Amino acid sequence: MTQRGLHGQLLETLGQAITSGAIPGGHVLRIEELAARHGVSRTVAREAVRVLESMRLVHSRPKVGTTVRPGTEWNLFDPQVVRWRLAGTRRGAQLRELSEVRAAVEPAAGALAARTATEEQRAELLELAAELSRLAGLGEVDRFVEVDVAFHRLVLTASGNEMFAHLGDFTAEALRGRNRLHLMPAVPDAVATRRHLEVARAIAEAEPARAEELLRQIVASAAAEVESLLARK
Questions:
Q1: Following DSSP, what letter does each residue of 14-45 receive, concatenated?
Q2: Is 136 exposed, middle or buried (0-12, 13-18, 19+ CB in 10 A)?
Q3: What is the pTM of this model?
Q4: Which of 94, 111, 124 is nearest to 203 (CA)?
Q5: Is 224 exposed, middle or buried (0-12, 13-18, 19+ CB in 10 A)?
Q6: pLDDT by position in tens, the chain (length 233)
Q7: Sign of the dihedral defined by the CA atoms of residues 118, 124, 125, 130, in that order
Q8: 136 near 144, Cβ under 8 Å?
Q9: 3-state secondary structure string, 97-116?
C-alpha cells in the first residue's frame, strides 16, 4: 500500500474512532504509539494527525502530545466529519441535526437565488430538475442522488451568499449519507421530485417567497422520510 493509502486508512480509522467516542475527548495520541499500533511510519502518523488537527478533532502541544478535543470543538461542517458521524451509532441524531441545518439555510438560499441567480444558473436549475424527474421515473436512485446534490449545491451557490455556497459540500454529504445508509425510498418520491421542478421555476421566474416555501417543504419532507425509515430499522 502507498504512503497516501496508508495515511488515508489511518485517517479513517482515527476519525471514526474519535467521532464515535471510542477514543474519548482528553485522550492523548502519541505519534510513536500510533505508528507502532497501526504498522505505519511516524511520517504517515504525523500526516494523519495533522489532518485531524485541521478538522479541530485534536490539538497538539509541545511536551504534551496530541489531545483529542471534546465534540463541542470539532468542525462539524467538515464533510469528512459528517461522514464519520453518520457511520457511528448516533447516526439518527446526526441526520436530524443535518435536517435542521438544511431547514434553516436552504429556504433562505432559495429566496436569495430567486433574486440574484444568473440566467445561466436559472437555466441549469431547470435542466437539473427535469433530469431528476427523468431519473425518478427510471428508479435510478444512485444517479438521482448525484443530480439532487448538484441541484441543492447550485441553489446555495446561486444565492450569491458565499457562506451559503460554502455549505455545498456539507449538504452533499448529508444527501449522499442518506443513500449510503439505505435511508432513501426504492423509488424517489414523486411529490418531492415535482417540488424540485417548482423550485427551479420559482427561481427562474424571480419568485422568492415561492422558492423559499417550496424548499422548506422539500427539506421537511426529506426529514420526515428519514424518520420513517429510521423507525423501521
A1: HHHHHHHTSS-TTPEE-HHHHHHHHT--HHHH
A2: buried
A3: 0.88
A4: 111
A5: exposed
A6: 444 587 789 999 999 999 999 999 999 999 999 999 999 999 999 999 999 999 999 998 887 789 999 999 999 999 999 999 998 888 888 888 999 999 999 999 999 999 999 999 999 999 999 999 999 888 888 999 999 999 999 999 999 999 999 999 999 988 998 888 887 777 888 888 999 999 999 999 999 999 999 999 999 998 888 887 677 76
A7: positive
A8: yes
A9: HHHHHHHHHHHHHHHHHHHH
Residues 82 and 170: beta-carbon distance below 8 Å: yes
What is the residue type of 15? Answer: G
CA torsion sign for 8, 12, 18, 23 is negative
Place of cell 436549475: 125
The DSSP element (H or E) to which 135 belongs, if any, is helix 119-138
